[in-house]
Protein: Glycerophosphoryl diester phosphodiesterase
Amino acid sequence: MEKRVLNEKRILNNSLRMIYDTFIYLVLFEVIYKGVILVIFKPIIEIIVSLFNKDGSYMFLVNEDITRFLLRSTGYLMIVVLMIISIILVYYELSVILLILDSGKKKEKIKLLQITETALLKLKDVIKNKNIGLVLYILILIPIFNIGMQTSLYPIFSFPHWIIKKISKFPGSEILSILLGIGLIYLFTKLFIVLPIMIFSNKSFKEASKISFKTVKNEQFKIAFLMMIVMLIWLILTYPPFMILEILQSMLPLIIRSASNISITIFTLFIAPFILAISLENYNLHVRSGDLDREEVYEKIKLGQFGKKLWSILGKILQIIQDQIFKIRNHIKAFIFVTLVIIIGVNIYSDESIIPIYEKQLLIGHRGGNYGVENTIDTILYAGTNGADYVEIDILLTKDSVPVVIHDNSLKRLADTRKKISNLTVDEVKKVTLEDGKEKDDIPLLEELSRKVKGKTNLLVEFKTHDKEKASVVDKTIEVLEKEGILEETIFQTAEYDIIKDFNEKYKDLSIGYIFKGRIGVFPTKKLSQMPVDFISVKELLINKKMIKELHKSGKAVFTWTTNNDYKAEKLLKLGVDGIITDYSVEMMKPRDKYKDYNEK
Structure:
């Protein structure tokens, strides 16, 4: 039996060689597969969602409707169906990538159709074995670990900022975060060769997990080190070129800006296969040492007469494409040049800026921002007098129908009490002390805040309800703002469509927006553009170029929330958003002004 030694340098060299030998085939597969996902499976998923909806006439669900729907039995069933489809599509993609890499490793002639057929047969075993653990591994652990193993179906997962912010407030949260991170790294490294074991040793996820845990014993640190090397290579490939492109921006704005996106393209095509190649190389090491047995697949998919003809045609088409690619590959310099030209050209088109509706793109302080206790007078004034064009605040009514500035009906998060605004009179509310870390403050009445901000900043007021109101939150809020003389310069928003209808019936001359938190199913942008509002406030992850274009055509502005990252802010400003809602309005002045100056050149 050959002695097994995990040599990091040899593994990295062999993995890079695998990528080099198979890169063109990996790109070809990804282009075809992503096209199939977009054209076939995405519409199928959207149709499934609409069929599960209570009312078949609706093709989408938004905001609070989503929660209500998912709490029903049909909602649970829909989640199960979508998870099954998702795991099939993701596992199949990862299987094909591993099979392509394996063929490259063995110096075999790569036949994509034959590889896709083998992957389908492997998929049959996964379905038969009911691999529940695989669902958790592929759809939860890999995205949470966030090392670039992005597939065609789901984007790279990242925790929303507000979740991290809430967790960080609990005692011992730093230690908990460190322990959680260590736990995730440990689990990922122990399961590092689970996919190759399933695919090449024909094991269920449960069996593969046990084998992976056993075979990588005492090698977790080496595997973690290899992952660090992958990330370091990624940084070397992308960060210095990006900095150079930033310096040269003023010389060739459009081409340079588009060229900077090449690094993102390289990332999606290179990192995931690279990690899988390292995993495969580790697996092969254990096979050679006798720790694992490898099983080859000789079975064929059973097809009818029509299926055989179709499969034959597909095989010929793919073979022609592969032959042409192989010829081009021999002229590597010309191939690289043409590839870069195509990528830059595509990015020039997709990266084209959309002209914002407003003369100036707005910075809006989210509940005042991260400069004190949220929704309090000092925090709001700081944001409003240090860069924010507007400050977003939340309004709820007390038990005696007085508008107060606070986001949650429950006071548990900020005051560590089970009391609720809906059950307290204004006098009782004023006795509550809010805490955020070491900061302490009171809950302001809208009347108090209005007097303090008059002439200093503008407000974006969000109407919220707790279903115990004895009066209209809209009427009470407007009454106070009008009395204090700041109604004219105030704009409004809400996530509740009933409030929008009520607002439009009574206050047509004022500006209101709709907060779009999320959707399930087909949600045509045209539906948003037809809403009787002046602007749409969209969650950062949901915004896209098509949405902005369509909304601008209908005369609606687009705000995005909550954007706390300079890079994301620049991307969104470039897309043409009209306002950025952020916890860091002071810090966001730099990217906003930089992009403004950049467009004026």
The chain is about 60% helix and 10% strand. The first strand starts at residue 60 and ends at 62. The chain has two domains: 8-350, 362-600. The first helix runs from residue 8 to 52.
